[in-house]
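PROTEIN DESIGN WORKSHEET
SECTION A - STRUCTURE
LENGTH: 181
TOKENS:
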């Protein structure tokens, strides 16, 4: 998107304490804001962008798999079904007293996967650091039949929602500067 940035980390947050299945979008936004606020605490002048992605299928929330068996179970659950990928993005600047978040949801339809396809994909090592045990931007493109919604959301950063957050920060910053003059 043309931004210069530095990658940082925030203090460990118990993600499970934030996720509420009954309201995934709002609870994921709260998690993204908490991560952003933690990073902004150590960098009060920085404009911190944080995000988190989950996959929901048949009422089950899928984060990153803990091991190969977990990844295999996730892929079997997703096989031949539609699931939702929800990404929340937050923008936080402590010294500007700004924090805002948004979420994006995309429906992803997996093809019916054979045991051989699942085992092949697991052998790529790609599924182990991704929500739902797949990365659509990599080899998993072969597992997907179609998507409805933002492709970049499934990758992990919905472009439109992120741009809107930056626009809101710019508007807030401009109003803040006008009020001070």
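SECTION B - SEQUENCE
RESIDUE ASSIGNMENT:
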């Amino acid at each position: 998107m043309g931004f210069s940035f530095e990658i940082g980390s925030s203090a460990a947050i118990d993600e499970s304490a934030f996720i509420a299945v009954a309201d995934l979008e709002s609870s994921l936004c709260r998690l993204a804001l908490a991560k952003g606020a933690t990073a902004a605490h150590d960098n009060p002048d920085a404009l911190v962008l944080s995000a988190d992605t989950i996959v929901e299928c048949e009422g089950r929330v899928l984060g990153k798999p803990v091991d190969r068996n977990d990844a295999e179970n996730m892929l079997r659950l997703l096989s031949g079904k539609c699931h939702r990928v929800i990404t929340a993005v937050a923008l936080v600047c402590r010294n500007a007293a700004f924090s805002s978040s948004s979420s994006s949801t995309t429906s992803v339809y997996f093809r019916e996967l054979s045991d051989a396809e699942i085992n092949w994909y697991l052998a790529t090592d790609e599924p182990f650091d991704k929500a739902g045990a797949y990365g659509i931007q990599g080899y998993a493109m072969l597992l997907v039949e179609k998507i409805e919604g933002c492709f970049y959301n499934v990758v992990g950063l919905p472009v439109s929602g992120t741009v809107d957050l930056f626009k809101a920060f710019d508007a807030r910053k401009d109003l803040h500067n006008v009020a001070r003059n």
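SECTION C - NOTES
Strands lie at 48-57, 60-62, 82-93, 98-110, 144-148.
Confidence is low (pLDDT under 50) at residues 175-181.
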